[in-house]
Design goal:
It is built from seven helices and 17 strands. By secondary structure, the protein is α+β, with helices and mostly antiparallel strands. The protein has a 15-stranded antiparallel β-sheet that branches. The chain is globular.
């Protein structure tokens, strides 16, 4: 057992998650008391929690800022002339919207019905502005819809998602199943997207603590036939084996021949989404860096600041203004 424990520690040491031990310690007992009586598989979507367990923003706000955080990369995708390279760049763009989350025992606000979140991202005169619009269109079950448009470079995206928060015993899965697609007018290409989910580990204080992504990012383009799958590999039971933030995957060309699908392996991937992911050419065996988390930071962009008084009354910033002020000031009443 001692040798196994040392091996597990070695295997789990890469890219450790961000854990705020002080905050997690303060909120841990409260979570244990709330979750202790629940059975595995319980739906936590509508659970009411105290203000001490809340972050100062709505999940609707976080979805938008995360997805568009490196949207300065979009013009490069549009400019790319090679369809295979373009499909890989689309995958990189969606990976770039994932950021390490801090395990601190706190969660965002659940959006109210009709709550909206609008962002404007200014890419400069040459590439114009990207507009992000989202709204909570259903409260029970919680469903959001979002739309992104940049007419200057000819990019549109549509997303819908149903929030599912499931208790797993010592972890909580946060999933957003739904429809996601992005369209590039310059190439008349529509990509459909599936994304991994969040897993919050160690909520009952047992085993490894942290927030990881699990499942697959799948990028498909019917026109070109390219399909990229990146598998976000979860840790094992209680985090006893596996590696934080590890990924692998592949890109295939899917065609039809005499009514049957034919799949040709083109690329394989391995690495860590929080640092670097390598790509290997299936034919030549040549290996190079496909994705560099820090390197992608050159595409970082923040939304244009819009004063609250100029936003809709249903904008997240106005809906939760008093609650946000209270949390930031430490006033939990």
């Amino acid at each position: 057992f001692h040798k196994l424990n040392n091996w597990c520690r070695t295997m789990s040491s890469h890219a450790e998650p961000i854990v705020d031990e002080h905050q997690a310690g303060e909120t841990g007992e409260e979570w244990k008391n709330m979750l202790g009586s629940l059975t595995k598989g319980a739906d936590l979507t509508s659970m009411i929690v105290s203000a001490s367990l809340l972050k100062p923003y709505s999940s609707l706000q976080k979805l938008g800022t995360d997805m568009m955080s490196r949207s300065n990369y979009l013009p490069e995708i549009v400019a790319c002339k090679d369809p295979l390279e373009r499909s890989l760049m689309v995958a990189k763009f969606f990976i770039s919207g994932f950021h390490p989350d801090t395990f601190d025992g706190k969660k965002p606000f659940n959006p109210i019905l009709g709550e909206q979140c609008h962002h404007v991202f200014n890419h400069g005169e040459e590439f114009g502005k990207s507009y992000y619009f989202s709204e909570q269109v259903s409260h029970h079950p919680p469903i959001f819809a979002a739309h992104v448009v940049n007419d200057k470079i000819g990019v549109k995206a549509t997303l819908t998602g149903k929030t599912k928060v499931i208790f797993g015993g010592n972890f909580i899965d946060v999933k957003f199943p739904g429809h996601k697609e992005i369209y590039f007018k310059e190439h008349d290409e529509l990509y459909t997207i599936e994304t991994p989910f969040l897993c919050v580990r160690g909520v009952m204080g047992i085993g490894k603590k942290g927030i990881e992504r699990s499942g697959q990012l799948i990028v498909r383009c019917e026109k070109t036939g390219y399909v990229t799958k990146v598998h976000f590999k979860p840790l094992g039971f209680l985090g006893l084996w596996g590696t934080w933030n590890a990924v692998d995957g592949h890109t295939k060309l899917v065609t039809k021949e005499k009514g049957k699908k034919k799949k040709e392996l083109l690329k394989t991937f391995d690495g860590y989404w929080t640092s670097t992911i390598n790509v290997t050419d299936a034919k030549s065996g040549e290996k190079e860096v496909f994705y560099d988390y820090e390197g992608m930071s050159k595409y970082n962009i923040k939304p244009v600041e819009i004063p609250l008084e100029k936003r809709s009354k249903l904008d997240s910033g106005n809906v939760w203004r008093k609650a946000i002020e209270g949390i930031l000031s430490g006033d939990m009443k």
